[in-house]
What we know:
Chain A has 495 residues and is of the alpha+beta class. Chain A has helices at residues 9-20, 26-33, 37-49, 67-75, 78-87, 93-99, 107-116, 138-145, 158-169, 188-193, 209-214, 241-255, 269-272, 304-317, 324-327, 337-347, 388-401, 444-447, 464-471, 478-481, 484-489, and strands at residues 24-25, 53-65, 120-123, 126-129, 151-152, 174-186, 259-260, 266-268, 292-297, 329-332, 352-361, 373-382, 407-411, 417-427, 432-442, 456-462.
Amino acid sequence: MNNVSTLHPIERSILRVLANNDAISIEILAKMTNLEVDQVRRGVEWLKFKKLISINESSNSRVFLSLEGSTTRISGLPERRLVNAVREGKNTIREILAWGAIRNEETNAAIAGAKRNQWIQFEEGKMIATALAENKSQEEVFLDKLDSNGIDITKLNDEEKKVFEQLKRRPNYLEVRVHNEYRISLTKVGEKLLPIHEKEGSQERRLTSELITSGRWKEVQFSALDIEAPAPTVYPGRRHPLVDIVEEVKEIFVGLGFSEIEGPILQSAFWNFDALFTPQDHPAREMQDTFYISGQRQAIPATVDQKRKVAQVHKKWSSNRWDAKEAERVVLRTHTTPVTLLHLASVKPDNGRFFSVGRVFRNEKMSYKHLAEFHQVEGVATMPRASLRDLMGLQIEFYAKMGIKKIKFWPTFFPYTEPSLQSMVYNEKLEKWVELFGMGIFRPEVTEPLGIKNPVLAWGGGLERIAMIRFGLDDIRELYGNRLTWLRSVPKCQL
Amino acid sequence: MAKERAKMPVVNMTVDRLKKIVPRVKLDKALDILPFVALDIEGVENNVIRIEYNPNRPDFSSDYGIARALRGLLGIEIGLPKFRIAGKSGLEVKVDPAVKKIRPHIVALTARNRKLDDKTITQLIAMQEDLHNGIGRRRKKASIGIHNLDAMRFPISYTTAGGDYSFVPLGESREQSIYTILKESDIGKQYNHILSGLDRYPIIADNDRTVVSFPPIINGCATKIDGTCRNLFVEVTATDKKAAEDILAIIAITLYDAGFEIRTVTIDSDKKFETPHVKPSMISADIGYINSVLGLTLKPKQAVKCLKKSRLDARASGRKIICTIPRYRTDISHAIDIAEEVAIGYGIFNLQPTFPSAPTAGQKNLLSISFDAIRAALTGLGMLETLSFSLTSKEVQYGAFGISNKDMLSVDGSKSIEHEILRDSLVPSLLQSLSRNVHEEYPQRLFEIGKTFRKADMIAESWNIGGAVAHAEAGYTEIRSTIQALLKSCWGKDVSTSATTNAMFMEGRRAEIVVDGRKVGLIGEITPLALESFKLRVPVAAFEIDLSGIIKDK
């Protein structure tokens, strides 16, 4: 039978609070009892088992801001950015797009939104902002209202419901999650046990410095603690999980005799493309694919001899056309290969192995499988008579160290290597072959103008894909989302 | 060396067609072997195989090209593919010198005596599209017109016309002026940039002055091809002669494979010449060189056999391999390319990897090693590492702080407003990360090591370390303790701080970090204005240091 004296102090605390408070949540119980949530949870379980309390379980759907929604809240909805641009004197869509306030695909949503809110009017084909543009739209008010606890969807009023539905139709802003709630009440049996009086004891709760130094510890008795109750959660400082993989890759390279090189992200088009035998009219060089820095050109950071020889190679293959101006443009490197090439061109090793891991950029719209900015791993080995089979051997060894055993090679194409291969590795988790690194031997058109004598074996590829497999992610953006739940919880040890 | 997968061209081939190409080979085996001629299977659906090919092999733009390579590797047919020009057609294209400044080159051929069925038309149109986008550089460099030969009266002329010149374009029933086509039709709007700024436009018209084509935009309606055609006229106009010839050579072999009889057309320009040019070229490679590149010990005879399986012709003369390259193989120009063809003919799956021993021990660079120490110190202080993008938005970087900056480095044509400028500080990124985690437990202590970019006399980039602490009690003192500990732990340096004016931080609670008399960074409490912008509800204190101020002579 239950009686107060057999109850654990946690149970007693909970019952005391419940005597005056009916149907309260675990979180509130924790606050009122001054206990940790986990301790309360445990106590509630015990009490339920003893039939002293009852738990009423309910679930509701709550709406939260999504990752992208939280960014949008800072940068503004498309219609807000549009109307801001209009107020800056940009009156046509063409101007607004050129100004960069909205993206092409946001145009319709922006105009529709701005019209719906009566923020803009059209006069002779030009947009002007109305006085209403000062006001926040219902959608903005709604987004502002969303906090970390989210909002219970059933508690939205009709007006809010409409706004919620509207926003839900616009992709990516909101996230609806089901939230379970438990409310605790005393049962009839529990009520009968009340009131509870804490037995006052002469026991000490803490071993204080005073007790130790005075020797008084010999005279007092210490209360027993609830040694089974969990302690508050603490979070250690940690490296980013992607950095773990970077470090792992670096260790493997070092183990295989490779030395690390590092270099600038901003490159001249000359080293990013021209020196790598990528024709000036190659599609990869267009703005749709490559980020160029607006209005920036730089004198080509190469010797007169290097420039002349690279230009010669291009002229030979492109009907005598090669424009130094094009090579002077400043790009966000699309691969780390220019760094490698610059190193080889300046050191000219007869026998050497180098690697780099660094960020590269592609003008892509971000999605669950694409990023505009990611890490590339690259290794090169140069030596007399370096062969395609050597390159394959280096790959096998590299992958083996990453725990990848099933590998096959297919021929492929890169503008600056010949022969070129791509490696396919078997992913045990996905049960299929996936493409990993590309590789090849630098073409003579690349090495000869720079005075590199021996064949150069090169391979590389994106690192994020390996990270996704390792961490079981299906959305690549998670790696840069900095969600603390993820950063704090990814297991660090592989064994 | 990452590929832009989304941009690879694709050929559709039915399973039946594949079975015909490689009879007596099981479908699984045939699909398995495709990648070894550098073709990727993107998917198989409803009996159609979607095959990706690399842009250096425009001859793969139809399934005839794929058939040639596949049959070679499987040994069904080896050596140069059969191809023959039946002779001159006797037909002529007169080139008006006026085209020289606009789109100077034209080449053409005729293909006769085969009924054009729907399947072949589909193939031809897909091939034309791929060639337009690839070698043709979205029609800018070269474009193709395929016409019904029987509807044309020769000689035809390649000339120019003014913008109000009218004709009936393909797919229309009424005459339209060139201006109308360029300004109003979908195809015109898509490609009119190629002809912008011109007052005369390229036109191909026949002897009756019927418009055959308005390159590179659209064909005339009169010479439209359909399932009843037996005889074709193909022209390629271009700004680059080699591109035009490359394309025509690929079309010639494809139409020949499709069963047409190919004849040349006379181009009457500065001088008269016949097109297509289909003379194969010769490249020789030393067997020692080939073996060295591949890591093999092939005899000349074996290499010749491999090349034949790659659908080239070759003979050995001593240690020299003399290779015949058909005109449509536009990707082969150097002995190294011959080595690759040998590898493909040999079978990449037959190459045994070898592991070359390392000449020296490897090592990380000193910067990397410093980063390790920095990470160890900051994580030891309880900070969590974050990673965010170098490209960010003006709003996050400046607007949120009420700062306007005219010296920012922006990128052209970003597909996303979130990635329009290069960050010059890590602090906004850290605040953005905090902003995404307002529902997570506090305290939150974050750091990032990343590149920042600045426009000074020249563009400069530097490695920075930034850190931010956010919780109810967060403030200047805590973050100063942190930076003191970091600099002491990593470089044995003492820190001093002096007042500054940076608008990210609150007045009276912001300072420059000074080490050895040099300003190396900033520290302070973030302004409430910025906290509001980032929807943060607890105070945040942050620091940022520029490593180049501390690590000298990296």
